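Sample pair:
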Amino acid sequence: MIKEDEEAQVTEKVVYINRVAKVVKGGRRFSFSAIVVVGDGKGMVGAGLGKANEVPEAIRKGGERAKNDMKAVSLVKDSIPYEVIGVCGSSSVLLKPARPGTGIIAGGAVRAVLEAVGVSNVVSKCLRSHNPHNLVKATLNGLRSLRTQEEIARSRGKAVEEILA
């Protein structure tokens, strides 16, 4: 969870807005759901789903849920430390680190998450399903499973040089 003073630097991106209809006696009742991704651009990211009768209210609710979901991601400079596959439901996202100057090569839902977290050189590929809900969750799953060399060395009780040798 983020503090109030950090909330000013948080960027919010709307990934997908869906209109759903419920048929009632007098006609159709429309409501909206919005997937919102929130990040500080320095390694913190979260996603949330908001539902309401109006679009702005759905986006606001999604943003609040995303801020409560924010967690840290291990990054190396402006990329990810190694190749990873994130899975959620039937969606899989392959994330590969890229050389400086490559940029973010990703589709809409995955791109929003990567921009929010602050990654600027990465290549991605959506495998299997392209459902935006699951793509966002799969991307977050992959990013949150990343660990730096220091974290791996600490968990094994060794020095970084021992692991790299």
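The chain is about 30% helix and 35% strand.
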